[in-house]
Amino acid sequence: FYRTGPVARETSETHMGKIRKRQAGGNTDKRKTAGTGQSRQTLAEDKLPDTTAHLEDLVAARTVALAEKEQYYRSVLHDLHEDILIIGPDYRITDVNHAALVTTGHKRQDVIGRHCYEISHGYDSPCDEHGQACPLKKVFTTGRPANFRHKHTRADNGAVDVDILLSPLKDQAGSVTHVIKAVRDVTDLVQAQTALQKSEEKFRLLYERSPLGYQSLDEDGYFVEVNQTWLDLLGYSRDEVIGNWFGNFIAPECIENFRRNFSCFKEAGEVSGIEFQMVRKDGSHVLVAIDGRIGYQEDGSFRQTHCVLHDITERRKAEEKLHQYERIVSSATDMLALVDQRYVYLAANAAYLRAFAKTSNEVIGRTVAEVFGEEFFSTVIRPKAERCLAGENIRYQAWYDFPAAGRQYMDAAYTPYLGPDSEVRGFVVVSHDITERKRAEEALRQSESRFRTLA
Q1: In the chain, pLDDT over 70 holds for what percent of residues?
Q2: What is the pTM of this model?
Q3: Which of these three, 316, 351, 375, is where a domain ends?
C-alpha cells in the first residue's frame, strides 16, 4: 500500500520508448520492402516482425495502463482511515495499508508475512486456541463475508473495540485465496453505549419510584412489572396484571393502534405521548399518554420497556372545551382580538382578519399602530387603551376605515386581560359593526329635522 508513482512512471516511459523504436523500425522496413519489388510471400514474411512488434506494443500499453490503475488503487487504500489487511489462508498478512501500521505501531516490513493474530492480539497461536471464535476461518471455508465486533491491541498495548468486516477474495475457480480485513475503531461508540445503558438503569429506577404510573412490558407486550401508582389508577391487583398482555387493558378500538405503535417503539427505542383509552377494573375508561424507552441486555438485545403513564383525562376535557371556545370565537361575526401591554397583537379571529384583508401571520406579532396606522392609533385607540390597561372597562363608538370592509361605524369594547397573578397583561377587543343602525339613526334625525322645518 505504499505509493509506487515513480516506478509506474519509469515503467510507462520504458514501454513507450520501445513502442517508438519499433514504429520507426517498422516504417524503415516498409520502405525497403516497397522498393525491392519482392514477391507477396516475401512481403508477408517481412510484415510479420511488424505485426509481432504491434502486438508487443499493445501488451506494453496494457501493462502501463494496469500499472497506473494499480497505483491508483494502492493510493486510495493507502489513504483510507480504516485499517486494511490482506490475509492468506495460513493467517499470514500479505499486504497492509498505512492506517493499520499507525494503529499497530509497526513498520511495514515487520507486518508482512506475520500472522494476523500476532499483530491484532499479540497471540502466538490462532484466536480459537485462546477461547475466541475465529470468523476468518469461517470466511475461508464458506466464501461468505462476515461482520462482527472484536477487541484488538493498539500500539500502546491498550485494548480497543473494533468493528471488523471480512471480505473474501476469490480466484477464477471460485476458491478463496485471501481475505480483506477492514477494521474500524468503535471504542468511543461502545463507551457511549455503556454510558447509555447505565443511564437507562437510572431511568428505570426513577420510574419505579415515581408518583406517576409505571409499567414494563416484555418483547411481546406482556407485563413484566407495574408500580403501585399504576395499580391505584386502574384498580387492579398486581397478580391480575403481571404476565398478561397490555392489549387486555385497553379499549378494543385501541388494540390495533397498540400493535402498530409497539412495533415502532421497539425499532426506535423510545416513544413519547402515545395515547390509549385504558379500561379500569370497574369498566370505566381513563385516557393516558405514555412515554418510554427500551432497556437492552449487555449484548444489545431487547430486555424490557420502561414507560410512565400520565392520566390526561381531565386535561383532554379541558382541551376539548377550549377548542369549543376557539371555534365559537373563530366563527363569531364580531371582530375579536387580544393585545398585550406593548400594543402587540397576540390573537385575532377570522372576522378581524377579513376586515383588514390580512392573514394571521400579517397581524399576529404586529403592533396596533402598524395595522391601523400611526395617526388613528394615537388619536382614537391609544387614549382609550391606556385607560383599559389601568384596569378600566372601556366602551365607545367611532367610524373606522377598513381596507377590505370599507368605512364602518363600530361599537368597540376594551376589557382588561388578567394573567395568572391577576395583573393586567393586555386587553381584549370586541368590535361590532353598527353602521346600518348609525345610518338609520342619521336618516331618522334628518327626517325629523325636515318635518320640523315644514311644521
Answers
A1: 80
A2: 0.39
A3: 316
DSSP assigned state of 379: I
Q: How big, in percent rounded to 5, are the helix, strand and coil portions of the chain?
A: 50, 30, 20
3-state secondary structure (DSSP) of residue 202: helix
Task: Provide the 3-class DSSP secondary structure of residue 152.
Answer: strand
pLDDT digits (tens, 9 = 90+) for 60-114: 777 766 666 656 555 556 666 788 889 999 999 999 888 888 887 888 898 899 9
CATH number of the domain that 224 lies in? Answer: 3.30.450.20
Domain that holds residue 96: 81-185
Query: What pLDDT, on a 0 to 100 scale, did the predictor assign at position 417?
Result: 93
Place of cell 368605512: 407
- Residues 409 and 398: their CA atoms lie apart, in Å, by 6
Q: Are 207 and 225 in contact (CB under 8 A)?
A: no
**H or E element that contains 18:** helix 5-36
Domain stop point among 50, 78, 106 = 78
**In a shared domain, residues 67 and 166:** no
Q: What would the DSSP string read from start to end of 63-102?
A: HHHHHHHHHHHHHHHHH-SSEEEEE-TTSBEEEE-HHHHH
State the burial class of residue 288 (Cβ atoms within 10 Å of its Cβ: 0-12, 13-18, 19+).
buried
* Residue 30, CA atoms < 13 Å, CB-side half-sphere: 8
**180 and 254: one domain?**
no
For residue 384, give the C-alpha cell: 382609550
